[in-house]
Amino acid sequence: MINIRNGTLFVKENDFLTFSQIFYILFGYGCIDVLRVILRMAREFKNFIDGRWRDAVGGKRFENRNPANWDELIGTFPDSRAEDIDLAVKSAAAAYESWRLTPAPRRGEIIRRAGDLLVQYKEEIAREMTREMGKVLLETRGDVQEGIDTAYYAATEGRRLFGFTAPSELPNKFNMSIRLPIGVAGVITPWNFPMAIPTWKIFPALVCGNTVVFKPAEDTPATAVRLVEILLEAGLPDKVIQLVNGNGPSAGMPLVEHPGVKLISFTGSTQVGKLISATASKDLKRVSLELGGKNAQIVMPDADLDLALEGVLWGAFGTAGQRCTATSRLILHEAIHDKFLAMLIKRVEKIRLGNGLEPTAEVGPVINQKQLDKVLSYIGVGKDEGAKLETGGERYTDGACRNGFFIRPTIFSQVDPEMRIAKEEIFGPVLAVIKVGSLDAAIRVLNNTKYGLSSSLYTRDVNAAFKAIRDLEAGITYINGPTIGAEAHMPFGGVKETGNGHREGGWPVYEFFTEIKTVFVDYSGKLQRAQIDNQ
Ligand code: NAI
Ligand code: MG
After folding, report:
1. How far apart are CA 45 and CA 74, in angstroms?
2. Which of 23, 60, 163, 513 is 20 to 30 Å from 86 by CA-CA measure?
3. What is this structure's pTM?
4. Whose CA is nearest to atom 42 of ligand 1?
5. Which alpha helices (H) appear in 159-238, and where do they start and end?
6. Which of 195, 269, 295, 319 for a ligand 1 pocket mutation test, highest count of atoms within 8 Å of Cβ?
7. How many helices (H) and strands (E) does the chain have?
C-alpha cells in the first residue's frame, strides 16, 4: 500500500514497488505531489466546495505550522472570504433537497463507513494531528477514537430518531410527533480537538438529514481536510459536505450571517460565542454554543490521595491544559492541603515536555504564539495578584523545544478565590490551588466563576458525593475521576457562560439538529373540534 499525504510518502514495510505501482504514484497522485515529497515542499491544501477541491476565489492562502517546531511548515490553505462561503452555502442548499429524502438509516450507514475508515487510518491521522496541533500521540489517537465512537453511535441513531405518539382527546384521531431535518448547518470548530469536535457536530447533523458547511479552526485545517476526504470515501454525496478554510472574522462570520444557513453549531471562546449568538439571533437561527470553562477538582480528606493525584495530573496538564474541560483549579481541604501539594509538585516537576511524536514526551506545546503570550501573561497576573508560584512559570526552550511554544507545567498555591487566575479561563498548563475548610466552602469556591462546564470531587463519602452532584454548578460532574473524559453517547456541555443550554454527544444533539413536526390524522370522517366538541 502506498499513500501520499501532507508531504510524506508512506510505503508499507516489505512492499516492493512494482512498475504498476510506480505508474500509479506518478499519475494517480500526480507528478507534482511526488516532486513535492522529494523536495519536501509543503502541500497546498484546498477547500471542498460544490463537489470539487478548489482554491479560494480571491486566491489568497494562509500557512499552517507545527507548534512544536515553528520552522516546520505543514501546508498552506485557502484564506476564504464571504464569496467562498456563498458558493458553499448555495451548493449545500441545493444538495439538501435530495439528502433530506435519503432514509436516515441509509445516511447512518455512510457515517458507519466513515467510522470504519477512521479506524483504518487512525495512526496516520493521529501523527498528522500531532504535527499540526502539538498534543502527544497518545492523545491524538484518543481524539481520532472519539471520532470513531461518535460515528458508530451516530450510525445507530439513524435507526432511531424517535418522535412519539400519544392518545388523542378526540375519537378516531391519531397524534404523533416526527423529526425532520432543518437545512444547511454551519459548523465552526476550535483547534484543541481537531477530529473529535468536528465529528460531534457533523456526524449527527448529516444523520439527521442536514447538509453541512464546515469552517474548521485555522490552526488545525489539515485534520479537517482529512475528515472531509474520509466522508467522501465513505460514500457521502459530494455536495452534502462543504469545507471552507479561513479565519474567524473573514470566513466564520459570513457563514453565521448567510441567510441560507439555518443553524449554527460552534465550539470556541465565550467571547466569539456571544458574537455569534447575537448575529444569528437577528435571523432567529438555531445556535448551539460550547464555550469556555474554569473547571475544578475538589479533594476531601477521606479521598484516595494517590488516585486524586493521578486525576489532577491528567486533568490539568494533559493537552497542555488546552481542553475546555481542563482542570484549572485544585480545591484542597486544609487537612490534606500541604501533603497533597507536596506530592503534586514532586510529580509535576518530572513531567517531560517535547514534540508529541517523541515516545518520551508527556506534554506538548501550546498551539501558537498568541496562546503562548496569553498563558505567560496570566502567569504574570498570578504573580502580581500575590499567589505563590510553586513550580514552572516560564517558557521552556531546551534542545529540540527551542522553536516550539512550550510552557513548563505551572502551579500556583495560596490562590484566593477572587483572583483572576481563579476565575478566568487560561487554557494552558497552569493550575491554581485553593485551600478550603469544608465541603460547603469547596462547593462555593468551585461555583465562584462565570463558567460551568466540568467539575470533580474525590471522596469516599457517598453523602458528600450526592450533595456535590446536586449543588455543583456544572454541566458535568465526576466523582473520583478527573474533570476530563467525555464519552460519545453521553451529553456534553455546560451551564452559565459555558453555553446556551444545548448539549453535544448523546441523544440531545439529535434534538438540536432536527425540527419537530406534530401530526394529527383524523379518521372519523367528520369535523372534530378540539376543546369544543369534547368540553
Ligand atoms: P476562537 O473562539 O477565536 O476560535 C474558535 C473558532 O471560531 C475558530 O474556528 C475561529 O476561526 C472561529 N472564529 C473566531 N472568530 C470568529 C468570528 N468573529 N466569527 C465566526 N467565527 C469565528 O478561539 P481561539 O482564538 O482559537 O482561542 C482563544 C481562546 O478561546 C483560548 O485561549 C481559550 O481560552 C478559548 N477557547 C476555548 C475552547 C474550548 O473548547 N472551550 C476552544 C478554543 C478556544
Ligand atoms: Mg498549526
Report:
1. 10
2. 513
3. 0.94
4. 268
5. 196-207, 221-233
6. 269
7. 16, 26
CA 186 to chain centre: 15
Q: Name the H helices within 260-368.
A: 270-281, 305-317, 337-348
Ligand 1 site-directed mutation target among 193, 215, 272, most atoms within 8 Å of CB: 272
Domains of the chain: 1-43 (no CATH), 79-160+183-291+499-513 (3.40.605.10), 295-479 (3.40.309.10)
Query: Which grid coordinates are listed for 142?
Result: 484518543
Ligand 1 pocket residue status of 217, Cβ below 6 Å: yes
- Is 291 near ligand 1, meaning CB less than 6 Å away? yes
Ligand nearest, relative to CA of residue 220: 2
In the predicted model, what is the mean pLDDT of residues 501-509? 96
pLDDT reported for residue 12 = 44
Task: Please report which confidence band the pLDDT of residue 24 belongs to, taking 50, 70 and 90 as the band edges.
Answer: low
Over the chain, what is the mean pLDDT? 94
Enumerate the active-site residues: 290, 324
H or E stretch covering 5: strand 2-5
Q: How many CB atoms lie within 10 A of CB 360?
A: 9
Residue with CA nearest ligand 1 atom 30? 269
Using an 8 Å Cβ cutoff, are 458 and 308 in contact? yes
Q: SS3 string of 484-532?
A: CCCCCCCCECCEECCECCCCECCCHHHHHCCEEEEEEEECCCCCCCCCC
Minimum-distance ligand to the CA of 188? Answer: 1
Which atom from ligand 1 is nearest to the alpha carbon of 197? 40
- The pLDDT of residue 191 is above 80: yes
Q: What's the whole-number mean pLDDT along residues 192-205?
A: 98
**CB of 269 sitting under 6 A from ligand 1:** yes
Q: pLDDT tens for residues 227-271? A: 999 999 999 999 999 999 999 999 999 999 999 999 999 999 999
Cell numbers for 508 = 440531545
Q: Is the Cβ atom of 425 under 6 angstroms away from ligand 1?
A: yes
* Spacing, Cα 289 to ligand 2 middle (Å): 23
Mean pLDDT of 300-324: 98
Report the pLDDT value the prediction gives residue 196, as an integer from 0 to 100. Answer: 98
Ion ligand 2 nearby residues (CB, 5 A)? 64, 132, 219
C-alpha gyration radius of the chain? 25
